[in-house]
Hints:
It comes from Microvirga flocculans. The chain contains seven helices and no strands. It has two domains: 1-30; 35-121, Orthogonal Bundle (434 Repressor (Amino-terminal Domain)), CATH 1.10.260. The protein has helices spanning 12-25, 35-48, 53-60, 64-71, 79-89, 93-98, 106-121. The longest helix has 16 residues, at 106-121. The chain is globular and about 60 Å long.
Amino acid sequence: xxxxxxxxxxxxxxxxxxxxxxxxxxxxxxxxxxxxxxxxxxxxxxxxxxxxxxxxxxxxxxxxxxxxxxxxxxxxxxxxxxxxxxxxxxxxxxxxxxxxxxxxxxxxxxxxxxxxxxxxxx
Length: 122
């Protein structure tokens, strides 16, 4: 529940605006199929493989500019580009688009967990 204290001298419209603004700023959970969540998994995958963007792009056959846009959540990765990643790395479309870890290669899954643990400690 979002609790916001507004000054009593504010008009009703000012109070409503303040409540709405604070509600919009409250952190909402990220959906697993959102651009941001997909971008995070793409970044985790590349980092789990111990590769820089340029090297990863050469491996999978995607331009660095396109890959950067995927990792920065500027664009959602296309199915064609995702299939290139799947073929080159062994990860699954379920991991990319839905976040299902079950079909990840074991070494990549372990490294992703390690990276997440390190990030949560910071």
